[in-house]
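Need a sequence for this fold. Nothing fancy.
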């Protein structure tokens, strides 16, 4: 999911060190707007790969859990304000985020890749991209990669949700979108994405995705143990296979 100095400054301001006390009921924080990883279904319930993995971890820890949704920009401050106990929202592990939260072991590995209209001559080298309008979700690895590598080359448009980036791509307001490969893969399967395709090779291919907890919270190790358990007993594979025809771990 999802270097972001504004987020981290806000997170630092609200940082609450210490334990979740490992309550009988744990609250899972997620965005609910990043299918297939986290979403709100037709019945209004939060679901998706992240949420199912988080619930499987709760089951291994023999604790009840409930899901709380949060805007992406405020999700780390909300964790540190104790609105939930851990974040399962396709969050990339970055050095800057490590200043505000602790991370578990990675529960999947992602890549960043461009998508654009099938009919477009869209090459991903800097010379070819010069002057194009490229969209990405704000406060994500994709948005930061564009700012770090394409500032002054392309016109970068950042969106509050991934869905809004796709809406502008579908309507022709941006030339392409950079996002997590697996999220792009899901959108390309949809009716809205049928006229679009991946362009070029992934520009970043070792994006580790993990669960975030408050600094110093022993819940981290409990989650790591539970993650090992669901991988060993096949629960992880069952959830993976529900969403993807390939292994994302």
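Here you go.
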């Amino acid at each position: 999911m999802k270097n972001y100095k504004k987020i981290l400054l806000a997170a630092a301001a609200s940082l609450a060190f210490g334990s979740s006390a490992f309550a009988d009921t744990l609250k899972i924080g997620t965005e609910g707007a990043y299918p297939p990883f986290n979403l709100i279904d037709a019945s209004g319930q939060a679901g998706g790969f992240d949420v199912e993995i988080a619930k499987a971890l709760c089951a291994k820890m023999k604790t009840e859990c409930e899901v709380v949704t949060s805007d992406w920009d405020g999700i780390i401050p909300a964790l540190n304000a104790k609105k939930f106990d851990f974040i399962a929202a396709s969050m990339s592990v970055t050095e800057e985020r490590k200043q505000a939260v602790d991370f578990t072991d990675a529960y999947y590995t992602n890549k960043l890749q461009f998508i654009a209209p099938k009919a477009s001559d869209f090459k991903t080298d800097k010379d070819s991209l010069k002057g194009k309008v490229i969209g990405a979700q704000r406060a994500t690895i994709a948005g930061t990669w564009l700012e770090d590598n394409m500032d002054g080359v392309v016109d970068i448009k950042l969106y509050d949700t991934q869905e809004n980036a796709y809406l502008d791509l579908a309507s022709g307001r941006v030339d392409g979108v950079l996002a997590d490969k697996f999220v792009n893969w899901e959108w390309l399967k949809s009716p809205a994405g049928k006229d679009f395709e991946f362009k070029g090779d992934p520009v970043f291919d070792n994006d580790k995705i993990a669960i975030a907890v408050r600094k110093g919270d022993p819940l981290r190790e409990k989650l790591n143990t539970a993650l090992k358990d669901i991988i060993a007993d096949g629960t992880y594979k069952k959830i993976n296979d529900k969403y993807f025809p390939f292994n994302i771990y």
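For context: Residues 5-109+207-243 form a domain with the D-Maltodextrin-Binding Protein; domain 2 fold (CATH 3.40.190.10).
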